[in-house]
Amino acid sequence: MLNRPTEAPALDSIFDTSAEALRLRAELEAGLRARDACISPKFLYDALGSKLFEAICELPEYYPTRTEAAIFERHGGEIARAIGTGTTLVDLGAGNCAKAARLFPLLHPAQYVPVDISADFLQDAVERLQQRFRHIEMNPLGMDFSGGDWQLPDTVRQERRLFFYPGSSIGNFTPDDALAFLRRVRAQCGADGGILIGIDLAKDNAVLDAAYDDALGVTAAFNLNVLRHANRLLGADFDIRAWRHHGFYNEHEGRVEMHLEARTAQQVAWQGGSRRFEAGECIHTENSYKYRPAGAVGLLEQAGFAAAGVWTDERGWFAVIHARAIPPGAMH
After folding, report:
1. Separation CA 287–CA 1 (nearest Å)
2. Domains of the chain as residue ranges with CATH
3. How far apart are CA 324 and CA 216, in angstroms?
4. 113-122, 153-162, 226-235: which range is least confident on average?
5. DSSP letters for 198-226
6. Which of 103, 102, 143, 115 lies closest to 20 in space, CA to CA?
7. What element of type H or E holds 98?
């Protein structure tokens, strides 16, 4: 999972005809029409999906959020000393900005730049946050940074950019896409920037299976809700009761997968299209790749970063890594 609550696509229904709404709707429809049907995980996070994710974070099976928080609680001072104060803190996938806000007393950023796909949700969160930290300049950006062409505007300070990407959201990318994404981050770091990133580590299969298919069925509800979201965005007629959640660790691929499986054969229609799903056919909704520490560091190095510090929990289930941008002339 993206491991952060956020409202994703900033559109409510088929009646939204803005350029961004049309682009996102086309992306959703293309995934449903694909040979192996899929829905991007960003569509999991509508208003209800965000609330369901918050409930997931409270489950005993779901370890990532509290494990990462414990690392920051235990090693926050050390992390802050390694980074220093006065950075331009660029919070990718900021959601409600809560994770970054906990770092403010340690990092004392000169500028805070939260980035999220839902501009309205983000603006509300920043307005509340600005009341608590009036001395910090805040510049919220509503945009989708999951693609390859995003760029920070000139309003973002060039000096000492620190990209903050917690929650192991990097795991939602394939390894190749993760590398491309991190290279895009590196290109916008400047000569004195860096990244502070959370990465979920490989562990016992049973722990991963339970985390993504909990006993109460909250994760199942979270996954099934994407069909309700698709009904609203596309005018589709998915019968949610005709689908079941399937979450498991694919050891060969090194990733957790979430799917929605058709219980029966059915025809699903939406405005301008339709598709038949056979019984047992799946819609792939999310991947969450798990890394070994050396692999995580190696990925950052390939992207043009040098790991400056690695902090893990006592069980070695999760890692927080601070990496500095390698000057272009020093890269091999």
Report:
1. 8
2. 19-56+206-289 (no CATH), 64-203+292-326 (3.40.50.150)
3. 41
4. 113-122
5. EEEBP--HHHHHHHTS-TT-HHHHHHHHH
6. 143
7. helix 98-101
Q: What is the pLDDT of residue 21?
A: 80
- Token code pair at residue 18: 């803005």
* Percentage with pLDDT > 90 across the chain: 80
Average pLDDT, integer, range 272-292: 97
Q: What are the φ/ψ torsions at residue 240 (nearest 5 degrees)?
A: -60, -30
Task: Please report how many Cα atoms fall inside a 13 Å half-sphere around the Cα of residue 19, on the Cβ side.
Answer: 1
Amino acid sitting at position 63: Y
Contact 111, 137 (CB under 8 A): yes
Strands 161-165 and 255-262: unpaired
Determine contact, residues 274/265, Cβ cutoff 8 Å: no
The percentage of residues in the chain with a pLDDT greater than 70, rounded to a whole number, is: 94
To 5 degrees, how large is the angle CA 27–CA 30–CA 34? 140
Residue 249 has φ and ψ, to the nearest 5°, of -90, 120
Cα(36)–Cα(264) distance, integer angstroms: 17
Q: Which amino acid is at 266?
A: Q
